[in-house]
Amino acid sequence: NLNTTIREDKVYRYLSDHTTINGIIHISHGMAEHIGRYEWLIQRLNNDGFHVIAIDHRGHGKRIEDNPKGYFADKNGWNLVLDDLMNVVAETNKEFPNHKQFLIGHSMGSWISLGVIQKGLSLDGLVLSGSSMIPKSVIDAQRIIIRSLILFFGKKAVSKFLDKITLGQYNKFFKPNRTEKDWISSDNLNVDNYVNDPLCGYPVTIGLWNDLSKGMLNVFKKSRYVQLNKKMPIYIISGTRDPVGENGNGVQRLYDFLNSIYKNVDIDLINDARHEVFSETDKENTYNKLLKFIN
After folding, report:
1. Which of 16, 65, 109, 249 lies in disulfide reach of 28, CB 3.0 to 4.6 Å?
2. β-pair type (11-14, 23-28)
C-alpha cells in the first residue's frame, strides 16, 4: 500500500558517527512546524548513538513547494501522509535491517503515528509527546464547522475563525501574554524562534483540518487496533501545563485508551512543562527519560 515516493532531497538524514549504533529514530512533527525544529533533540540523539531519519509532512517545511502551505492533498490526504511515513520507515528498514526502529510523534504527529500503527507499521517503540485523546463530541462539532467552511471557501482556503476556535484558545491560559505562542514552551528563546520562523505557526488550510479530524476519529476507535503487536512499548510524555493535553486530563485519557489495547504503555507528565517538552527549560531531564525508554 506504499503508493508514495519521496524525493531523496526531501528526507532528513542525521547519522550518528558512533561505531555502535543503538537504533534509528523517526520523527513525526506537529502542525505548522517542521523537522528543523528538532535540531537540539536530533543532536542529542546522534551524540547517544542514534541515527535520525525523518521527513516533513506534506505542506510543511521542505515539502511546501510540492503542496500549498498547510495542505495535505486534494483527495485522501490523511492516508497519503500515513503512507509517506510508512515508506520512510520501510526504506530505512531495508538500509539498516539489524537496528531497532523508534518513532517519536509530536502533537498532530502523534495522531499520525497512531494512524500508521493502525495500518500495521511494526516498530520497536513509540513515543507520543504533546498529545491527547480529544473527545469524539469535540471532533464531531469541529467537523460540522469544517464541512460548512469547505462548502463556502474550498479546501485550500485558510480560516482564521477555525484557527481561533482551536489553537487560538491555548494562549489564554498564559496571560498576560508575551507572544501569541506562549503556550508552546516556557523557554522564551524557543518561543521566539518559533514565532520568527516563517515555516512555523501559520494557519493551516481547511482541507488539512478536514483530513486531520477524519483521521482522529479513526485513531480513537479501538476496533481499528486489531492483529497488531500488542507488546509494542509505548511512552506517552506531556507537560502538566500543555493545553493540547488539557493540562494532563486528555493525556490520561489517551493513556487509559492505549493501555486497554497494549500491554506495555508508560506515561510521564512533566511538571510545569507546556506543549513542547523537548524544547522546555528542563529539556535535559526530559531527554534523559526518553533515553531510558529507547535504551
Report:
1. 109
2. unpaired
